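S.,

Sequence below, as promised.
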Amino acid sequence: MQALNDFLALIDSFIGGSFWFPYVLIGTGLFFTVYLKFPQIRYFSFAIKVLKGKFQRIEDEGDTSHFQALTTALSGTVGTGNISGVALAVHMGGPAALFWMLITAAVGMCTKFVEVTLSHKYREKAADGSMSGGPMYFMKNKMKMPWLAGIFAAATILSSFGTGSLPQINSISNAIQATFGIDLWITGLVLSILLGIVIVGGIKRIALVTEKLVPSMALIYFVGALAVIFYNIENIWPSFLSIFQYVFSQTAATGGFLGASIAFALNKGVGRGLFSNEAGQGSAPIAHASAKGQEPVSEGLVAILEPFIDTIVICTLTGLVLLSSGVWNEKHKNEFQYTDMEVLQGIYDDYSEDGIDDLYSHISGENSLPLFEGSLDVIDGIIQNEVTIIHARSKAEDVKLSLDDKPWTGSVTIKNGKFQKYEIIVSGKSLVHSAPLTAIAFQRSYFGKWGQYIVSIGLLLFAFSTAISWSYYGDRAMTYLFGAKSVIYFRIVYVIAFCLAAFVDTTIIWTLSGITIALMTLPNLFGLLYLRKDVKISVSEYWIAFKKDWPNEKIPE
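The prediction came back faster than expected:
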């Protein structure tokens, strides 16, 4: 597992985890924001009118309404990115990472407008009568680059697993196990069966499920988040300020948090922001391409609302929950994941300035400390060697080793700072990330320990709906590459992988998701920039036609 994670991390370091990827993503959004004169601001209120169906025509072609397309796309984005992803970003980059998530969303509103407009404009009717669209269609039909369309479609299939399936069930199963004590495989099996029942009905059944599921799950999560925020209301203003405090400087060490550089916070914030709202990734346009309507721009207007709801509203709520409750920089008792753990030679502390500097330099890759090599001796669960355990980017405390719920005695081989005996449970106190961190935060509210159940239920609904939507993105990509008959085979593999991912290491899943996101995003952004003039012409033509069809309606200036 460790070797696989290291290999995936190496690949990700050249694409999604690279220093240039955030700048490409944000830069594209900023370009279109200026090029189209801030449509995410000018058209925001008008987009709400379109969403309500005010300008819908009976003769419009499509499989879903504007609202159903929006909820389907939102169900694909509102998921682990809002609960686990925000917690992971703050855990790694500090409060400043949340700032970059919000920036990604603000410019992403414009990016969504562009990519959905183009995808809806160049959609096609599939052999089974359903609408098929997405970036691969404007790449083929307008750009005349079928090879690029093929790359994007293949990346979409991979991302349907790396983004939509694997991390979702992984987060669900771990959260439910932590909260209710239910075995990982039971959660995986039950939800896999439910997933199969839903996705076999295609986009119409998916839309019917998501239009009811998304509002319900949002309400549950809102109530729980506000209960935390108001319970810790004295911390709200300091928490809000902390988001901006270290935007242009290194985030200082505090509590168990050892610090983070500007570049690191930016990278993790933008990466998690993209994972959350998918603006620029090219996934949501596939859902919007099914919407009824002859004017592509009208569907682009609806898409503006997605990053606002998903990231600016929901992710901000999650971020304030983490910061106001104070859990993000505290060490908590947990079971350690091997891929997140490292054994250092010698004893280091995170209470002195020198110790913090040494540990931060190590975890940031600036100046590596000596790794332990050899035999680690353990008596009654206690390590006898002079070593320091690093887990989740923090120094671990009260470390104990156990086997079959009993303190373990023996020797374990350590190679290059990594355990070689994986059946032993290593536990202790360290920083926590992803869904478990959010669950801890939700307990510091008016609901007390019951708050964790809100996270578990919210995560269950969020993540499951994301898996549903991404199954549709994957089957549209399969339809494009191999025809409609291939979809059944994709759905079978999708459900099986969903089940298996319930008990795979979380860190590997998140690493894989970063790669698949980048593989979709880069060709899509290239296509958007290539067709920039096409978008501008489409917007102008839309408003001219709108004035003729709806002369009494006021249009945005």
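Residues 146-180 form the longest helix (35 residues).

Coffee later?
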